[in-house]
């Protein structure tokens, strides 16, 4: 049973992300090739600037360019972190609003429990709540998935 559950989780992850061993290997090779191309590009820019200006000026221009890229990336990282944090807060707020804790629902449940009998309904209610919670976690439409779909459509 456990291997079936692990297989199911792996297949769900593959279906959502599209990742497999081949994808990871090809992405790693592409990243290494891009890094090498970037290094050669930086050398070419430095050589071109050194011929046009002095080597010291060329080094300073390349260094300033890298500092600017680092600052822009740091600002982007902070903005992405804030956006992710806010999205997680909203998802937690939506998740915490449970209809089972509504006073009217609790009143109806108490009356039902009194009329049927607590000993007869307690195991049935526990199984129902467990099944509902599992179904909610497995089949719910996540807000971040809906946002992603809206962004892709635009």
Structure description:
The protein is mainly alpha-helical and 154 residues long. Helices cover 89% and strands 0% of the residues. The chain has 6 helices and no strands. It has helices spanning 2-17, 21-52, 55-96, 103-116, 118-139, 143-153. The model has no long low-confidence stretch (mean pLDDT 80).
Count up the helices: 6
Oligomer: single chain
Query: Number of DSSP strands?
Result: 0
Average per-residue pLDDT, rounded, comes to 80
Largest sheet data: none
Low-pLDDT residue intervals, each spanning 5 or more residues: none
Class derived from helix and strand content: mainly alpha
Instruction: Please give the share of residues in helix.
Output: over 70%
What does this entry show, briefly?
This protein is an all-alpha fold and 154 residues long. It is built from six helices and no strands. The model has no long low-confidence stretch (mean pLDDT 80).
Main traits of this protein?
154 residues, mainly alpha, elongated
List the helices and strands and how they pair.
Blueprint: H1 2-17, H2 21-52, H3 55-96, H4 103-116, H5 118-139, H6 143-153
Helix pairs in contact: 2-3
